[in-house]
Design a protein that fits this description.
3-stranded antiparallel β-sheet, 125 residues, 46% helix, 5 helices, 2 domains, 12% strand, alpha+beta
């Protein structure tokens, strides 16, 4: 199924797209549609993202108390509550997958600083 759209393009963009279509031996509409598809964001946002953000916020809120007892361990947070913990992340993940197969559960390691700052050095040109 297709939809017809009327679009005003700057002359320079039109000429460039026309040249690309001619060079590729494709229609102008096909080249323009491909350009639009390529321009859309490629980052997939999972529908449960807000639930995971809620679990992350709950983890941050309870981090101080978790750090006292579980520092260095992995914890599982579900609906704002600690539901499990383990030194072995794979064992923890296996239990969570078994007990909460369809739910959003945050599994994260308890470290002294929950929000690390990452510094990236890049060359200046």
């Amino acid at each position: 199924m297709t939809k017809q759209v009327t679009l005003d393009l700057p002359d320079a963009v039109y000429e460039h797209m026309k040249q690309v279509a001619t060079a590729d031996n494709r229609s102008f509409a096909e080249i323009l549609a491909d350009a639009i598809v390529q321009a859309k964001p490629t980052l997939y946002v999972h529908p449960d993202r807000s639930a995971m953000q809620n679990e992350k916020a709950a983890f941050l809120a309870m981090h101080a108390s978790l750090a006292d007892e579980y520092e260095g361990q992995y914890v599982a947070i579900f609906q704002g509550q600690l539901i499990d913990h383990d030194q072995d992340v794979l064992a923890l993940a296996g239990r969570i997958e078994h007990d909460y197969p369809e739910d959003v559960v945050l599994i994260t390691k308890v470290v002294d600083q929950p929000n690390r700052v990452l510094h990236f050095r890049s060359p200046r040109l």
